[in-house]
């Protein structure tokens, strides 16, 4: 089953890191992806640019409404994602525990729902 692991952290903490600390964290992330790939658990993933580069789109009455910035004001910002293959939520959580930015923020682990032409669940 597929699980999306959303990486959140407070960008202001990352901005206070030295270049060496930031590079070391990114090297850890690369190593984590290599390890997950070797084990067959990594499907896709990517870090995101800062929330200052985000635009939120809402479609209302057939017209786009654009807002600069992320969808919500929060203490932690969405920083990236890992798409993992795991047998169940417990395994997905164990894999997500190894994602290095978890030390600085949080990892939201959610099952991916299959989108079908008919008979989709709402939960």
TrEMBL record:
Pfam (any one): YCII
InterPro entries reported in the protein's UniProt record: Dimeric_a/b-barrel, YCII
Domain YCII-related: 1-116
Top-level taxon in the UniProt lineage: Bacteria
Family membership noted in the UniProt record: Belongs to the YciI family.
Name the UniProt record assigns to this protein: YCII-related domain-containing protein
Organism of provenance: Pseudohongiella nitratireducens
């Amino acid at each position: 089953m597929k699980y999306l692991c959303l990486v959140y952290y407070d960008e202001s903490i990352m901005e206070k890191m030295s270049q060496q600390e930031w590079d070391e964290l990114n090297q850890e992330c690369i190593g984590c992806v290599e390890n997950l790939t070797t084990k067959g658990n990594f499907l896709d993933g990517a870090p995101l640019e800062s929330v200052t580069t985000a635009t939120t789109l809402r479609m209302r009455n057939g017209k786009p409404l654009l807002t600069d910035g992320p969808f919500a004001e929060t203490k932690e910002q969405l920083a990236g994602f890992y798409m993992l293959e795991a047998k169940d939520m417990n395994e997905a959580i164990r894999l997500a525990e190894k994602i290095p930015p978890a030390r600085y923020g949080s990892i939201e682990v959610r099952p991916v729902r299959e989108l079908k032409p008919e008979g989709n669940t709402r939960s």
